[in-house]
Amino acid sequence: MFDQVQQALVPLIARVLDGQDTQSPSSKPLEGTFDVHKQQQLSETLVTAMGFDPDMGRIDVSVHPFTMSMSVKDVRITSRFRTDEWYQGLAGSIHEAGHAMYEQNLNPTALSLDTPLSMGTHESQSLFWERHIGLSRPFWRFAHPHLTQILDQSFFQQYTPEDVYKAVNRVSRSLIRVEADELTYPLHVILRYNIEKDVIAGKLHVKDIATRWNQDMKLLLNIDVPTDDKGALQDVHWSGLAFGYFPTYLIGAIAAAQLYHYCAMDIPDIERKIESGDFVPIKDWLKEKVHRHGRRYPSLDAMLEEQLGEALNPKYFIDYLTTKYSELYQILVTITVQRKLTILRPKARSIHKGQPSTIKYLEDAVVGHAIEMRQLREAIDRAKEWLLETRPILSAPNVFKEYTINMDQAPLPFSLASSTTLELEGEKTVTIRQTENSKTRCTVSLTITADGRKLKPMIIFKSQRGAGRLRPENLQPASIETTWCSAVNTMPGKTRKT
Ligand SMILES: [Zn+2]
Predict the structure, then answer these.
(1) CB 25, CB 169: distance < 8 Å
(2) Contact 267, 285 (CB under 8 A)
(3) How far, in Å, from the CA of 252 to the mean position of ligand 1?
(4) Alpha carbon of 32 to ligand 1 centroid (Å)
(5) What is the spatial distance between Cα 342 and Cα 339, in angstroms, rounded to a whole number?
């Protein structure tokens, strides 16, 4: 599982950090002079909004952030705040609030059955809130007014929610694990885990750990380690005999991404909910799927299997990071498309971006046809549908062409003359005679991913009249779908009349 993560992230990070075509977001919205008391107030406001119950716990300041649970009714969290940067303190609070909400939502009994399942599960809860909510674009639309109201009005008025979103998601090479961002962090864990395994298997001598560490840092993150205190000696885990502990951080991160994926399937407007500060359905979902079960399952895998229908699977984590950082760092992708259809006279339009711009393109394309809102929504829904369809193939993330699409659109008359005969299967050119009725035309957008996958055709009606009479589902499927999907749906090997 970790190998999959490593294989996906090493090239992605290299592209994000070294690519000539990338733009690094500014960290300016994070830096300044910020009052610790106000930061604490901001943290309390935001984590309470997210669902931390202050009547069943406390939020305090400490040197190192932690969560302590006396009982379900008293869960205390702490964070530390700096005066020259405000995000780290808040991130610590959100992380600890994620741990705390797990504790607060266990069944309120004294049974050991109603205690957290495992370290990895615990970490999945903190990372769910810290990353999938707290590092998301809609969250900063929600939180920006709080930044201006509570922290510093004149400072934050200079920046949009998008500026803040980009700043908190900046990627950089870090020698130190605890300072690493979410994209490079997994490699810090993998490096340690591989060393631990080799030491325990007798393949690596303890005296050679530092050398191996430095080699792996170069290999995985392209970082030169100047001294061992910034290298193999930076963590307290091994000196405290905590072997096999580091993987729980990454298992938690993988589980968090998987939980978010399924949560977003169950709450389709999750982003709108986050943006409006309505976190209740999300908290309830986590309670239903994770918290209330305590230790009733033998493992995290068993719980996910039963609750989500699938054991721990790193593809959601890889997908999340790839999609997010490709878009954030505007990693350009190139495409090659073979055009097979001569029935359509395509206006070739290539799209050089990932998913968001695809939606944008569709909106433009659809608006360009001046069709009514209902049809627009349908078209967009359909586009989203196949964007979801393409998600699974993102799991080989360094192959960017897999989620690059090319879209052609062409007018298609569907009022065919009754005696029209379509060509036999396999014909490259299909001639269609049509009636003069120009109102009964629709636009068909055909989309193909750069690796050759055909997506469902999108049909756009120009006039309300046409749309009213003929909806996509009662279109003659043979005239459109069979042609486009001929690789899948074969046409009968005889002439076909419409
Ligand atoms: Zn934690």
Answers:
(1) yes
(2) yes
(3) 9
(4) 27
(5) 8
User: pLDDT tens for residues 176-218?
Assistant: 888 889 999 999 999 999 999 999 999 999 999 999 999 999 9
Q: What CA–CA distance (Å, rounded) separates 393 from 107?
A: 39
| Tens digits of residue pLDDT in 281-332 | 999 999 999 999 999 999 999 999 999 999 999 999 998 998 888 888 876 5
The CATH class for the domain spanning 2-324 reads mainly alpha
Range 426-445 burial, b when 16+ CB lie within 10 A, else e: eeeeeeeeeeeeeebbbbbb
Which candidate in 31, 85, 96, 327 is catalytic?
96
Average pLDDT over residues 451-480: 46
Distance 131 CA to ligand 1 centre (A): 12
Count CB atoms within 10 A of the CB of residue 383: 25
Amino acid type, 379: A
Question: What distance in angstroms lies between residue 455's CA and the mean position of ligand 1's atoms?
Answer: 41
Residue 171's Cβ-count burial label (10 Å; 0-12, 13-18, 19+) is buried
**Catalytic annotation present for 130:** no
Here the tokens at position 110 are 């004294």
Domain boundaries, the chain: 2-324, 349-497
Q: Tokens for 338, please give them.
A: 């073979």
Count the neighbouring beta carbons within 10 Å of the beta carbon of residue 94: 25
CA distances from 24 to 144, 189, 326 (A): 21, 24, 12
Residue 25 reports pLDDT greater than 90: no
Q: H or E stretch including 100?
A: helix 87-104
Question: Rounded to the nearest whole angstrom, what is the distance from the C-alpha of residue 318 to the centroid of ligand 1?
Answer: 20
Alpha-carbon Rg for the chain, nearest whole angstrom, is 27
- This model's pTM is above 0.70: no
Beta bridge partners of 318: none
Burial of 79 (0-12, 13-18, 19+ CB in 10 A): buried
Separation of CA 95 and ligand 1 centre (Å): 6
